[in-house]
Amino acid sequence: MTESVICVDKSNELPENVDSLIYIDKTPFTAVTEGKAEVLFPSSHDVFYNPVQEFNRDLSIAVLKQFALDPPKTKSKAKQADTSENSDIPGISVLEALSASGLRAIRFAKEVPNLSKVLANDRDTQAYLSIQRNIKHNKVENIVQATNEDASLIMYKNRSYKDRFDAIDLDPYGTAAPFLDAAVQSVKDGGKFIFVKILFFFLSF
Ligand SMILES: C[S@@+](CC[C@H](N)C(=O)[O-])C[C@H]1O[C@@H](n2cnc3c(N)ncnc32)[C@H](O)[C@@H]1O
C-alpha cells in the first residue's frame, strides 16, 4: 500500500451526473494504491478506509479468483467480460453491498479475471460519490457500477432468479447477521458463496 497526496481538478476528473457540491473547488485528495487499484480519498476522511484490512481484501480476491475460474457452468447466464483471460467461461456477477470507497470492488474488477459485473453499493452519500469518483479514476466503468441504497434493500431487489449474483461480499462494521437473509435470497442457485469479513460461507442450494 502506498499513499500520496494529489490534487484533482474536479472539472476534469468527476462524472457529470454526481452532486454539484463536488464541483465547487479543487479539493485535495489522498491517493492510496492497493493491489492494482488507486483510490482517491477526500482529505476530510469522510469515507471509510482501513489499511489494516488490506489482507482481508487480498483474501477475498484470492477466493473470488478461484471461484471465477470454475463458476457454476449450467446456471450462470452472465455475459462474458471483454477483458476475460478465460473467455470460454461465462462471466460472474458480484455485489459488494457495503463498499465505502469502492476500493474492494475496483480491485475485484482489476485483479479477478472473468467478471461480467460488479455492483459497488453504499447507502452513505459521500461513500457513493467516492465510489463513482474511483470507478472513473480507475477506468473500470465497463465492469463496476455504483449504487446508493441500503444493502438489504438492494439484495432483496435483486432476488428474482434472473437478477441474482454469483457472489456477494458483505463487509459491515459489526456483525453481518442483519444482512444474511437478504444475501441468501439474492445469491444464485449453484452460485455458491457469500463472503463475510474473513469468514467465508460456502452455500449450496
Ligand atoms: C467497513 S466499511 C466497508 C469497507 C469496504 N468494504 C472496504 O473493503 O474498504 C462499511 C460501510 O458500510 C456502509 N453501510 C453501513 N450500513 C449500511 C447499510 N445498511 N447499507 C449500505 N451501506 C451500509 C457504511 O457507510 C460504510 O461505508
Automatic annotation (TrEMBL):
UniProt GO BP: tRNA N2-guanine methylation
Q: Which UniProt keywords apply?
A: Methyltransferase, RNA-binding, S-adenosyl-L-methionine, Transferase, tRNA processing, tRNA-binding
Enzyme class of the recorded protein, top EC level: transferase
Q: Which reaction is recorded as catalysed by this protein?
A: guanosine(26) in tRNA + 2 S-adenosyl-L-methionine = N(2)-dimethylguanosine(26) in tRNA + 2 S-adenosyl-L-homocysteine + 2 H(+)
Alphabetical GO CC annotations of the entry are:
nucleus
Q: Gene3D superfamilies from the entry? A: Vaccinia Virus protein VP39
GO molecular-function terms, A-Z = tRNA (guanine(26)-N2)-dimethyltransferase activity; tRNA binding
- Name the InterPro entries for this protein: SAM-dependent_MTases_sf, Trm1
Would the keyword tRNA-binding turn up in this protein's UniProt record?
yes
**Record-listed E.C. numbers:** 2.1.1.216
UniProt similarity note: Belongs to the class I-like SAM-binding methyltransferase superfamily. Trm1 family.
Protein name listed in UniProt: tRNA (guanine(26)-N(2))-dimethyltransferase
